[in-house]
Task: structure prediction
Amino acid sequence: MPKEKPELSEAIKKKMAGKTFEKNPIQGTKYTIAISSAKGGVGKSTFASNIALALKRIGCKVGLLDADIYGPSLPKLLSINEKPESDGKTLTPINKYGLQCMSIGFLTEEQTPMIWRGPMVTSAIKTFTQKVLWKDLDFIIVDMPPGTGDTQLTFSQEIKMDGAIIVSTPQELALQDVKRGIKMFDKLGVKILGLVDNMSYFTGDDGKKYKIFGEGGVRRTAEEFDKEFLGEIPINPEVGKCGDEGKPIAEANPDHEISKIYLDFAKKIKSTYL
Ligand SMILES: Nc1ncnc2c1ncn2[C@@H]1O[C@H](COP(=O)(O)OP(=O)(O)OP(=O)(O)O)[C@@H](O)[C@H]1O
Ligand SMILES: [Mg+2]
Result:
């Protein structure tokens, strides 16, 4: 699958140089929060869907916007197979598990060739942020694609983002990209709420913690860039299973130890803003 370019390319640097951008808020929400990481496959979409559901559980009104035009996850993660209603000018988000949801995956066939998706990125983001009838929300949680490409740039420059949460595994390889992502948000003036260490360890049947991807890397990166370290989420096969079944763990099993971790993150986000 083609990923967005991992580096801040010369073209992007040029686009950014010396410009100030007028940022539009998304109508229908009080706050917009991005779940990001320049690295792919670290659990952004899983975190985004679970944190949205945890926020709902503590009484917030929440929207979930899948900003991954190349590889949308929301249709599968929340098991949504219908198309949103439209009057030709606006789109109505799809309600699932009490969340207002939107994804390019609701609008295009899964097989839409990748070569057609590139030019769709900016226009799709504009549609999702300006033409979707989000209603009375406290938060829109934006599930970002991997990379530091056009999607991140369009969001950071043109849309009022109230915060970004960076998700990473503790692996050095992931952290290299994460550092690039942090620098990009810093440069574009998007407040980073903090870093989450996802898949930090696995607890075996023997009760021992196995730190498969190394230890402490995300916390160290947070310290290095003077950002808050928000906490750890261990590897748990239930997380993947629930995602595959289209009902994230925070919804499927709210009393699970992992769901309680998402709930703690959600309480922190709620108390930061509301
Ligand atoms: N804490 C966890 N425990 C077990 N599995 C997890 C955990 N977090 C994420 N996963 C699994 O890791 C895989 C990647 O997760 P996900 O799709 O959320 O990553 P992503 O960062 O959004 O990927 P992409 O960069 O492709 O958008 C999925 O199979 C998911 O179920
Ligand atoms: Mg994803």
Notes: The beta strands are 29-36, 62-66, 94-96, 99-103, 137-143, 163-168, 192-198, 202-203, 209-210, 229-233.
